[in-house]
Amino acid sequence: MNRKTIVRSATIAGAISLLASPTTTYAQLEEVVVTAQKREQSLQDVPISVGVLDATSLDRSQFSDFRQLAKLSPSINFQDGFAPVATNISIRGVGAYAFTGGIQPSVGVVVDGVPLARAGEFIIDLADVAQIEVLRGPQGTLFGRNSTGGAINVTRFRPSEEFEASIDLSFTDDDEVMTRGMISGPISDSVRGRLVGMISERDGHIENLGPAGGDLGGLDQIAVLAKLEFDIGEKGNLLLSADYSDREHGDSPQIAAIGEVMRPFGDVTGEARAYALGYGDLAAGRAVIDNPFQTAVSKIGDQNENESSGVSATLNYEFSDSIRLKSITAWRDFTDQNNPDVDETPAEPDNPIMPIISTYTKNGPNYSGSGVPGHTRGVESDYISQEFILEISRERVDWTLGAFYQDYEENIKNQVPLLIIDSFNPAFGNGANFGGTATPNDEYILNNTMLDNTYSVESMAIFADATFHVTDKLDLFAGVRFTDEELESTLNNYTQFGIYSFPNLAASFDSNTRVLDSNAFPSFPDGGDPTAVGSDSTSEDFVSYRAGGSFSFNDQVTAYVSATRGHIGVGKNIAFTGRTGKFLSPTEADAFELGLKSVFADDRVRLNVAFFTQDITDLQASAIIPGTVSTETINAGDLDISGIEADLVFAMTDNWTVSASMVTLDSTIENLLQPCYFDQASYGTGCNGGTQDVSGKQGTNAPDLKYNIGLTGNFPTNNLPFDLFGNVMYVWQDDIQFTLNQDDLATQEAYGQLDITLGLTDKAGRYEIQLYGKNVTDEFYVADAFEAFGALGRQVIRVPRAAQAYWGLRFKLNFK
């Protein structure tokens, strides 16, 4: 019996024993306080569908990665991109259908009151989170643009009134080591501080069989968060926050699951990918393609580096019991550097076992003068924001008034030099020798796209929201937000294409850095042909609103109805293609929601249900550029969505709590034409002249059904110095489609995953030990699937760490 089997058997046996423990007393659910309407309210009083995750549930679920929200909140889905900056977050099936720069997200992520411009800024291992609120449906009135799908409101712990500290260590059987530390408490009578740090390392979960290549999917991360809180007399409070994180990782490795015929060489090289992945052994290469946890790429492989930093100042001042002012000032900076092995094989200029080889060149825009290559794809953004919120509470009306300003700038650099062995190379003439090292006259086709583009948005908004208490049972609410945006873009897009002579190519290539010394070749082009050069600007005004009412049947049951409108701001495709076009019109979302919130059975059961519909117009979507594997973003089509959400918490006894969440979705695309996917015409499935009408098809990242069921147990002991606890959660979701063109191979079939946590905690709270398992039934799934025919494969998948079982042990020491 191997080590994993022993750990699993012991854990499951412990869980069964835990489930068998008898209990006889009953508990009541505690009130949940949220800030979904920019003020503190009971969850049951808020006329919005909101899912809430507190610090305890996050801790006991071993929640450390932001993407795990998709397990804890079924309305959320994540689709991995080539890097965190391209990760797509969706709520109720509404997400960013575009993965390049210049496009604004569809789900707002707010951290300590600061709206993040890029969701990728928070795709990190989490630490010190007090509560997460998932606001479903358009939230444009109070949370602004880019919340057409909803908003994720993250609150981190404030400095504590009394001294506390902790050290947290965790280890997993896939070689992750994570260390977290925290210290918090008073500095003086009116000043408190909090400092949190985290370091984590993890080996890759995708085995790389390439020569001298490291495994893919690993992680090396450091993060720190500091807070200072000052009391300003008896009525004021100032909170200063600063955070920094640096993350080197291979989170989204691309795996060729189905190979392809390599154009333009025809069928004679149909096995070229298998030959390269097997490093000359066709059978071995086919085995690599058949194994989703194996690949063979160059030494550097698919690597990303993200650096995020920010500071904020939050001022609260209470003029009276009924008038409160909040000011939130913030600056943030985010860098995402992506270093893909574009051909996804071990091929290099000094070892051309594929007809297409990617490399770096010393005259590229991302090359470092220090001799170390930059990344082929880089995104840098920084922005400042300022928000004022005035709360006014009267006997018959509550007002929330505010103003918001953000100045955002984003720079994208990209170069992907491809050396293509001349198609007349005799080595490919009979399909037998894929390792030819010579071309006629040492000639190669050079194809390189170079981008250095900038996109900026200056956004200003004012908003007002009011809740009128018409009677003791009836409330009416309405809100409106006026937004003005000024956008500018500067494009510097160049291409290098032609047949060039590169004598002694291998000798001019550094295999350690993958840099080709282009200075060694007199014929190497300097610069390139402009494809999109120049500056442009535009402006846009739009209005978001909400209106509705709620009725309390009694203290336990409230019904509400609402109509809302939200927007995704103006965008422009500025990244990773040599093409450009006009600015994209805002995407508009209109939603209707009917909900019921209830607490019953002596406050032991909380059941909240919502029915919703949502219409999306002028969808900002990515479309394949014909004849390439690149995308451009366009306004295309509409989306009609309807569904039901339900959240249940049942405190069965003092020891046992059951929780469950569910969402059904009917997401339908309307009025949208898309390019046909590869070989679609031969199937007779609606492809006409390379284009298809996908109206009536399923939206992306929108499973028809998704749910989770959790069981939590807490067990005090009489004769031991510690108490026991446990948590079991099962998550299931229906089939999903990843691409708008409805490619049959860009899907994920329905699957379910089971997580288990068992632990003990000292009665005085001095220490805690947890044993946990993720995906304990070893259920495989993919986080993305797409076609890259002629470049990466007919089907390319992204395999996350959570696609296989792993187990961990965690130790935490608390000091007070």
Walk me through what this model shows:
The protein has 816 residues and is mainly beta. It has one domain: Maltoporin, Chain A. The strands form ten sheets. It has a 22-stranded antiparallel β-barrel. Strands 3-9-10-7-8 form a five-stranded mixed β-sheet. Strand 7 and strand 8 form a beta hairpin. The chain is globular and about 85 Å long. It starts with a helix and ends with a strand. The model is unreliable at 1-24, 262-269, 363-373 and 423-440 (pLDDT under 50).
Radius of gyration: 28 Å
Which blocks of ≥5 consecutive residues have pLDDT under 50? Answer: 1-24, 262-269, 363-373, 423-440
Total strand count, please? 48
Major sheet, described briefly?
22 strands, antiparallel, barrel
Mean pLDDT: 83
Number of helices: 6
CATH topology: Maltoporin, Chain A
- CATH class equals Mainly Beta
- Measured by DSSP, the beta-strand proportion falls in over 45%
* Share of helical residues: under 10%
Structural class: mainly beta
CATH architecture classification:
Beta Barrel
Q: How many structural domains does the protein architecture include?
A: 1
| The named CATH superfamily | TonB-dependent receptor, beta-barrel domain
Distance between the termini: 43 Å
State the main characteristics:
single chain; 816 residues; mainly beta; Maltoporin, Chain A; 22-stranded antiparallel β-barrel; five-stranded mixed β-sheet; 6 helices; 48 strands; 6% helix; globular; disordered N terminus
